[in-house]
Amino acid sequence: MASEAEKARISPSLQSVTQEELGDQTALNTSHKSRYQRWAMSIKGLEARGIEPIPLEERLKTNPSATLHMLLMWFSMGMALNNMVVGSIGTLVMKLSFADAAICAIFGNLLGGLTFGYMSTWGPKSGNRTLIVTRYFMGYYPSKLCCLLNVLTNLGYGMMNCMIGGQLLSKISDGAVSVVVGIIIVALATWVMATFGMQIFHYYERYAWFPQLLVLCIITGSAGPEFDFTSASIGSPEEVNVKRLAFLSLCLSVALAWTPLAADYYVYYPPTISRWRVWSVTMTGGCLAMIITLLLGIGLGTGVASNSKWAAIYDGTPASLLMAGYDRLGGFGRFCAFINVVTVVSNNAPGSYSMAMNFQMLGNMWSKIPRPVFSVITTVAYAACAIGGRDFLYEIFKSLLPLIGYWVVIWFTIVVEENLLFRHDKGYDWSVWNCREKLPMGMAAGFAFLVGWVGAIVGMDQVYYTGPIANAIVGGCDLGVWLGFGFTAVAFPPLRILELKVIGR
């Protein structure tokens, strides 16, 4: 390992990468390396570390650039085309006005930002990944259910990101690159980053935000004059209110999807770093990027209705919506659209990386399988789903995002209540992360999780099912996120008190 003098000479912007390399080598410097670990160490930059916590001696030392690095990482990850797709749903599909959709997007995203900002603070505090920390709140076995749900969540996001990137590459090339080939290109680029792990991920996200922001500024200048800021929302007052709440919930779910991953990217930071600093910087970077892209999507959606040329370009796909925005720029617009594909990879890679970790969290047998194996399996899975569903992107977004919001808000409610009501003054022994006998039993959390799902189901309003409470509202209204939160918040405390009284942990 490098001496302190050598570390001091390392550029702060590269210090995290170097420290992670050192940490991985230290962790593997034993006489019991597996064949995979020995092979991984022979490949420069390939991360071999699994789900085990990062020891204190291998954590980074805080420096003035740490805050900027955290901000830029989340700014880059949140600046994604899928957020523009969600924004366009508000005006293109739900027929909301720009003002209504923008207010819902901003407040929904800020509310969700509170959740991933809060969860990010557990990375430095514990040195553990997000859903390993969940074992201290929900118990060893119930936390596995969250791992499976998060795998499904990120498979869904991987599928949607690949569809967007594939459609865009096809539009840029005038069909010379088919949507299928475009999907495969995006999937392979994501797989490389997810396989090599934190080193290439941190390096990429540190710089990817700049070209992304430039092209978003360009499309704002190009398309902004065509945005319709005056038209009113379509429908009766009751219908408009229902659509406002539905779109608010959709934008909330966009931010909520980051919450089960938030601590994963801070495990190399020391526990001495201020929790408020981590929370505020994470929320600021992530929400700012997501709000920018949501508002652009909302504006592009209004332009299709007011501009006949845009309406002719728009063929029902998000890629055609983006190309309409770049239309007046000609070939330069196509180049900017190609840069936008970068945002797909930078948004897709973090989920793919964490998804492989989630598989290893399912048990000791799973943890023995090298992480790249899961990266390959999941990449093939979401690429295949993207190819099969490439013509139904808007329908998939509208159906999948609420489901993500349901389970995340239920899980997050249990996390917050367990920490604030039952564990706040007791502290945590992070060394028992894999000792099920010393973790909570999880019966209260597991039952409360099911109760929360009951609330989500009776309040959901989707194409495939409408719950009785949602059905009682004229025109229907998706209340799944809100009722899931309410049912869980009420059910968990008494169940946990009973569990502590009877079982004692």
TrEMBL record:
Transmembrane segments: 71-92, 98-119, 145-169, 175-196, 208-225, 245-266, 278-300, 331-349, 369-389, 401-422, 443-460, 472-495
Gene3D superfamilies: Hydantoin permease (1.10.4160.10)
Membrane topology reported for the UniProt record: Multi-pass membrane protein
Biological processes per GO annotation: nucleobase transport
Family statement drawn from the similarity comment of this UniProt entry: Belongs to the purine-cytosine permease (2.A.39) family.
Designated name of the protein: Purine-cytosine permease
GO CC, one annotated term: fungal-type vacuole membrane
GO molecular function list: transmembrane transporter activity
Subcellular location field: Membrane
Keyword terms, alphabetized: Membrane, Phosphoprotein, Transmembrane, Transmembrane helix, Transport
InterPro entries: Pur-cyt_permease, Pur-cyt_permease_Fcy2/21/22
Native source organism of the sequence: Aspergillus avenaceus
PANTHER family, alphabetized: PURINE-CYTOSINE PERMEASE FCY2-RELATED, PURINE-CYTOSINE TRANSPORTER (EUROFUNG)
Region (Disordered): 1-29
